[in-house]
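=== RUN LOG ===
request id: a7f3
mode: sequence -> structure
chains: 1
length: 307
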Amino acid sequence: MIENVEKVVVGKRKEIELSVIALLSGGHVLLEDVPGVGKTMLVRAIAKSLGANFKRIQFTPDLLPSDVTGVSVFNQKTMEFQFRPGPIMANVVLADEINRTSPKTQAALLEALEEGSVTTDGQTRELDSPFFVMATQNPIEYGGTYPLPEAQLDRFLFKFKIGYPTKQEELDVLNRVEKKHPIEGIKPVLTLANLVEMQKKVVDVYVDETVKRYIINLVNSTRKHQSVYLGASPRASIALMKAAQAYAYIQGRDFVVPDDVKYLAPYTLQHRILLNSDAKLSNQTNERIVQDVIDQVSIPVGNETAR
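=== RESULT ===
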């Protein structure tokens, strides 16, 4: 599947791999990057590789919660209300420029991201399974935007950037799109049933007690760091463990090692902490603080991680 997506998104294997990890662990991804680097192509290629039902939501200031979740419409023939599902009712959803809509509409995503369901007209409706959301936001243009609150950021398993390609990679992109776009030639390599079965296997990946303690030590250190106003929540510990299980699975292992946790910690923790005013004044960043935490927390080695 990773190789299939690479036919469209050139030179971004790590970012594709992180997206697949999120997919396998039942999490969601927030992409923060400038326009034109392939954010939409990434999620479209993932959807086509699965043969999944794909929907795109373009978030705008006038978008209503019902535009996302769906609405009940009165049918004059049957004299009954009929529910018309919104774009959130899909297997793979692109929430494009999520920070351009109002907090009320942003909040409509909270239940979907965490519970896998939406509530409309007082009725809770289960979403399709598997369910994967990739949200994007532009870090450059802040005019008319509504920054995502901490509660919503915490619902995303990963936050990362795609970044610009190298000159050679950009040349490869030009060659691939010269005649037609490679997204048109993408064929499914997995079924949704395959994915659900893999997700079940990911849950069975063994996590030793010492690895769990390492995860807890990392998350707890973000709460005690002198530059942090609000540290990562227990949800971050759960997210890091589940992501590590998925990463071990795609590496062909049935157990998690501390290096899995260390590798995924930056993408899992950076968006879950808030810096204090002193740290902001000294131009510190979430990325630097999380790396500082990773460097300070000792890694269990040797017999400590033996199964």
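=== NOTES ===
The longest strand covers residues 70-75.
The chain has two domains: 2-190, 204-302.
=== END ===
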